[in-house]
Amino acid sequence: MTRRTITRRDLLKTSAVLGAGFAAPMIFTRGAMAYTNEPKGATVTFGFNVPQTGAYADEGADELRAYQLAVKHINGEGDGGMLATFSSKALKGNGVNGKKVAYVTGDTQTKSDAARASAKRMIEKDGAVMITGGSSSGVAIAVQGLCQEAGVIFMAGLTHSNDTTGKDKRANGFRHFFNTEMSGAALAPVLKNAFGTDRVAYHLTADYTWGWSQEGSIKKYTEQLGWKTAAAVRTPLGAGDFSQYITPVLNSGADVLVLNHYGKDMVNSLTQAVQFGLRDKQVNGKDFAIVVPLYSRLMAQGAGENVKGIFGSTNWHWSLQDEGSKAFVKSFGKEYGFPPSQAAHTCYCQAILYADACQRAGTFMPSEVGKALEGFKFDGLGNGPTEYRAADHQCFKDVLVVKGKEKPTSKFDVLEVVEVTPRSQVEYPAEMLGGELGPFNNGTA
Amino acid sequence: MAILTVRNVNKRFGGLKALDDVNLEVQPGTVHAIIGPNGAGKSTLLNCFVGRLEPDTGVVDFDGVSLLGMKPHEINQAGVSRVFQTPEIFGDLTLVENVMLPAFARRDGAFRINGWRPVLSETGIRELAMEMLRDVGLADHAQTVASQLSRGDKRRLELAMCLVQEPKLLLLDEPTAGMARADTNNTIDLLKVIAGRGITMVVIEHDMHVVFSLADRVSVLAQGTVIAEDVPERIKGNQKVQDAYLGGAHL
Amino acid sequence: MIEKHSRRGDLLLLLGFALVVAFAPTIFEPIGGGYPDLLQKFAIYGIFAVGFNILFGLTGYLSFGHAAFLGVGSYTAVWSFKLLTMNVLPALVLATVMGGLFALFIGFIALRRSGIYFSILTLAFAQMSYNLAYSVLTPITNGETGLQLTHGDPRVLDALFGVQHGDGLPSTDLFGMSMSGWSGYYFCGVVLFAMFYVSLRIFRSPFGMMLRAVKSNQNRMNYTGINTRPYTLAAFVISGMYAGLAGGLMAVTDPLAGAERMQWTASGEVVLMTILGGTGTLLGPVLGAGVIKYFENIFSAFNEATLMDVFSFLPETLQHGAVAITGLFVGEGWHLTLGALFMLIVIFLPGGLMEGVNRIKALFRGGLRRGEVRRPATMTG
Amino acid sequence: MDAFVLQILNGLDKGGAYALIALGLTLVFGTLGVVNFAHGALFMLGAFCAVTLQKLLSLEKVTEDPTQLTAWGTPMEIRTPYIETWLGDLGTTLIDYSVPVSILLAIPVMLVVGVVMERGLIKHFYKRPHAEQILVTFGLAIVLQEVVKSFFGANPIPQPAPEIVAGSADIGLLLGMDPGTVVYPWWRMVYLLFSAVVIGLVFAFLQFTTFGMVVRAGMADRETVGLLGIDIDRRFTIVFGLAAVVAGMAGVMYTPILSPDYHMGMDFLVLSFVVVVVGGMGSLGGAVAAGFLLGILQSFASMNEVKTILPGIDQIIIYLVAVAILLIRPRGLMGRRGVMES
């Protein structure tokens, strides 16, 4: 980051001349900083980068609600939410490092370019010291790379691809959400209990990196159980009508359909698969089963009745009964009148975790904050004992296996938790997914 | 020898025989009119000269070279320019640009990226274009957008566009169609001036007044075939021609 | 379109343009746009739109697939950073060339048709590129994630000349000058100015006149001895090279290339920029690009809290009302504002923003220019 | 064999949907000469007629049960649809049938939308360049979808088909195959039938009514019909209304297959343009033929057997076919010379 160029001084003069009547550009008024956007005033600015338009706009809106709630709690407003149950007591409800938290927002549009542009605005113009949010892995990886270059911390939002903390991991990036590897590991034993070991699976996979990654994990773990894979068919992103991919399943001899789809693709492929009678079918004398490895409650609502009895995994669900989850649901529900989604939960946690790390480090300098997060063990944020693994900046915690509820009591009550797969079962060695963190970057402000 | 030679040209459209063994010779430096009743095949014949239509059989030679199989722009580059029944001009361009463009085509050929030197610096071409506009009496409107012109002025503009190319052969498809009498007379005068410069012209025309004021030679086309060819004075008296025109109301 | 242009007028235009580029950080600061990334985007999309206008504005051929060339330029540039060197010059040259080559191939086929058939052919090629880049071409494009730099990249030229990169990922440079932040903007600005100048030369040249004539009357062109296909193809390739260059610059300021840059919405965006600014005008496309990027980046950034600040001068009840109403148009509602803007502009200023500018100019001159003719509508059914 | 039959069915089903969307678009092209980028939005509005009716039918009476609390401490709400309390079982049936019933709502609503749109906006753009038509209709499409988004959110909203046709039929039995080999959802067959009927009706309307004859004449030669002194304006309005109604009905009936969301119109926009152009601008028959052709080819290209030979072919087949057809037939399958060529 070069903020000092030869032209700067010339511009300074010119702007001083032209400057009557409007504020001098912010960039020229900044003094020397030890790291990018070091906060000098009474506030520190967080950047919330969420999808506000496009297919994930509702998820993005929920993320933003969670962030706003988190900021309130960090600044000591409201009921404090999960701060009360959080194992670290560094945050006192008076901001972070003596500064009140302010925030800026931006629209990722679920496009890498737009997300990076928006993040850059928050860094270059608004002086954000940390960027967080997002609802897809492509965007998360893109923004993570940007934050690494710019020298700010990136706290990933909803991103489920292995690559975020695998192949494409970066020192300045941290992920609380789980990944496809953990989904596979968590689902496999549950699938074994529910459907046995003699099964033939048919995969429909969204044809991009996340889909492939998900397909690979599920294949790996189910084949370890003794399942066979009849076929794994790639479907174009946003296909809408999946009938041409579903009909070949009917007579393929497979008795399990795995839908490696997310968002609208998941809603449509699941709805249509059920319409083709797959949920009620009998194959090889067994009940046909459909599995959706990554569930999102918000999206599942779009599939309506069709989710009933369908297995999947999720990062968190509002019906959990631990103290942290209860506190969060209570706080969020009081504020907005409905329960939070898993996206909201992970974003809330990320904001709190970042603030806490800054407080413990006593600075916002990325390298120090990063060190405070690396290897940090905590509890009370709704997922049980959790660790931010130092080697890949991935959180390790229990994974929820859920099922579409047969008798929902409200429109939010679509999933029920079947199993909490303990952390030990979903853990994998950090080297397995490749990639390199590299050094922290504090920027050159 | 003839500048344009047409031998045994036939053209069918489905069941309709539009041209039936047409023969024609146009001598250099003459004005050759092609007349005939509606549907006689005049425009079809003209289209065969410029590459818009391809005859089924026959020969069309221009200056010793066959025009068959050539694209319209190649035929133009060979020295044939055409004036359309409805003036075809560049409506969005100014008059001077309309005339400069064919001049560029003459100088630079069918394609050349002349993308750096401004048009303003092309003084030679510009003066040539202005001269042509003066010739057709439109120099005062050089900076007007062409679509604003009256039909008669558009025709003059089109003539200027053709003349700036110094064509060896100028084809005119009913140059006075739809014009008021005054305009028609102006156009005739203009065409006479052009003819006076020795440019060979083939004129398709309905208006016999125009034909007899201009033409050195007249071919009469009826039902796709040439029924008579002669000097204008003798064509008037030709019985076959009288019949073709249903008692010669036009004559 | 008639612009009475003179050398003096063009010189003033260039001078004004250069001044705006040079002082953009100060000029855009009061409206919240004075930060490097947005200004870089203005410059890059300005180049894209200026190039697109050479095709669409002059010849009237409406391509709905120009984003493909932008994407190709970006991928080429990132590959150049990965394989050759972090120096931006080879990347930009290669991006421009690749954009041109792709345009040559697609244009050669698509220009066999005109009108909407041409549009759909270009759209089809771009969509094929996008779909393949997102999925099966992942080894080349890195699919959804987008192509990015890694530690293990060879960078043979850098290795050859002993250029050292630090521990972290290397960043792009021009012989040591960093390409992010302000220096990145000024680099883009200089390129924009150069490309604007090239476009001005083309507009004023006989070649530009030929292209305008293609739009006006292709039939007459043929009978005037001009082979229109190579002219349209040349325009297509030039605009493809502009797009490739713009794509390359995107990678220069931010070394990541994603497939979505090639999606039809991205192609549509440059069409909208050009029409919004004023098709066939020199300055219009740059204006249009700026307006759309400004909306995308600034209007989307408003949230409830910032709005409450803005309306804090109002009594509380009014404040809430004002926030609720404006909230529909900013933040997550910025698309609505953009859509409404498109409609308003095209309804009230058929010639785009440039028509507005010209009307204002005419007002100042007291409406003396009676000779000026309204742009005739070229419409065929 | 069964795979083949199933893909044919899929292709027909898709083709029906494509043809239905393209029909109105090409009608507007052909008669009005307008490039309507808001056509997808009309499809989306139709779908949201179904959503609206469903929401209206299932308007709930909310009572609070203070003995039970939600997770955030407010009393639990008990919701019962008014219509069930008023009409009993009939109410439940009505909710069940909300999708087909909303056709009745969609027809007048879309007609009004179409007429207002034409009178208020499109009318002023007949003589404007295509580029400006694109800009204004694209702007309108964005505005419409953003308005829908602000009411209904961005997430898809499920619209189940009536219980009786929610499952699938074993039509393989009819063809003498083993039970269970060729099963096909009832609703998709309803949709196919529906599209066939609507296409038939539109054709019959244009073929056998005086109004239709004038419109067809207008498509063939706009200027002449105008010169005949026929009040073309009013007819154009009706044509636009008709196009809107057809798009809207297509949207309504598609909702059980594709849960509607505010963006669905844009998703179909490019596709419907490709269908129209491949069919030939302004050719109704062409649009229908192209719709079915592309639907069937897309279905077959998606088969695993094909994809293993040509990876990714299902991603691009539509565009590939479009390019091939336009290169072989310059004006698409049935297009006429001179329409939308400049």
Topology summary:
The complex is a heterotetramer of chains A (445), B (251), C (381) and D (342).
Chain A: H1 6-18, H2 26-29, E1 43-50, H3 57-74, E2 100-107, H4 112-124, E3 130-133, H5 137-150, E4 153-156, E5 173-175, H6 180-195, E6 200-206, H7 209-225, E7 228-235, H8 243-250, E8 256-260, H9 264-275, E9 282-283, E10 286-287, E11 289-294, H10 297-303, E12 311-314, H11 323-336, H12 342-361, H13 366-373, E13 377-378, E14 386-388, E15 395-396, E16 399-404, E17 415-421, H14 423-426
Parallel strand pairs in A: 1-2, 1-3, 3-4, 4-5, 6-7, 6-8, 8-11, 11-12
Antiparallel strand pairs in A: 9-10, 12-16, 13-14, 14-15, 16-17
Helix pairs in contact in A: 3-12, 4-5, 6-7, 9-10, 12-13
Chain C: H1 7-27, H2 36-59, H3 67-83, H4 88-110, H5 115-134, H6 138-141, E1 147-148, H7 156-160, E2 173-174, E3 177-178, H8 181-204, H9 206-216, H10 218-223, H11 228-253, E4 256-257, H12 264-277, H13 284-298, H14 304-310, H15 316-327, H16 334-348, H17 353-364
Antiparallel strand pairs in C: 1-4, 2-3
Chain D: H1 2-32, H2 39-57, E1 60-69, E2 75-81, H3 82-87, H4 89-96, H5 98-120, H6 130-152, E3 168-170, E4 183-185, H7 186-208, H8 210-220, H9 222-227, H10 232-254, H11 264-279, H12 284-301, H13 304-309, H14 313-328
Antiparallel strand pairs in D: 1-2, 3-4
Helix pairs in contact in D: 1-7, 1-8, 1-10, 1-11, 1-12, 2-5, 2-6, 2-10, 2-11, 5-10, 7-8, 7-10, 11-12, 11-14, 12-14
Describe, in plain words, how this protein is organized in 3D.
- The complex is a heterotetramer of chains A (445), B (251), C (381) and D (342).
- Chain A is α/β, with parallel strands linked by helices and 445 residues long.
- Chain A folds into two domains: 5-178 and 319-397 and 433-444, Response regulator (Rossmann fold); 181-314, Rossmann fold, CATH 3.40.50.2300.
- In chain A, 38% of the residues lie in helices and 18% in strands.
- Chain A is built from 14 helices and 17 strands.
- In chain A, the strands form four sheets. A seven-stranded mixed sheet of chain A has the order 7-6-8-11-12-16-17, sandwiched between helices. In chain A, strands 2-1-3-4-5 form a five-stranded parallel sheet, sandwiched between helices.
- The radius of gyration of chain A is 23 Å and the shape is globular.
- With 251 residues, chain B is of the alpha/beta class.
- Chain B contains nine helices and ten strands.
- In chain B, the strands form two sheets. Chain B has a six-stranded mixed sheet with strand order 6-7-8-3-9-10, sandwiched between helices. Chain B has a four-stranded antiparallel sheet with strand order 2-1-4-5, with helices on one face.
- In chain B, β7 (169-173), α6 (181-196) and β8 form a beta-alpha-beta unit.
- In chain B, α3 runs parallel beside α5 (151-163) and α5 (151-163) packs parallel to α6 (181-196).
- Chain C is 67% helix and 2% strand.
- Chain C is built from 17 helices and four strands.
- Chain C has helices spanning 7-27, 36-59, 67-83, 88-110, 115-134, 138-141, 156-160, 181-204, 206-216, 218-223, 228-253, 264-277, 284-298, 304-310, 316-327, 334-348, 353-364, and strands spanning 147-148, 173-174, 177-178, 256-257.
- Chain C starts with 6 loop residues before the first helix and ends in a 17-residue tail after the last helix.
- The relative contact order of chain C is 0.16.
- Chain D is mostly helical and 342 residues long.
- Chain D has one domain (2-328): ABC transporter involved in vitamin B12 uptake, BtuC (Orthogonal Bundle), CATH 1.10.3470.
- Chain D has 14 helices and four strands.
- Chain D has helices at 2-32, 39-57, 82-87, 89-96, 98-120, 130-152, 186-208, 210-220, 222-227, 232-254, 264-279, 284-301, 304-309, 313-328, and strands spanning 60-69, 75-81, 168-170, 183-185.
- Chain D has a two-stranded antiparallel sheet with strand order 1-2. In chain D, strands 3-4 form a two-stranded antiparallel ribbon.
- The longest helix of chain D is centred in the N-terminal third of the chain and has 31 residues, at 2-32.
- Classes of the chains: A alpha/beta (445), B alpha/beta (251), C mainly alpha (381), D mainly alpha (342).
- Chains in contact: A-C, A-D, B-C, C-D.
- Chains A and C meet through α1, α3, β2, α4 and α5 of A and α1, α2, α8 and α13 of C.
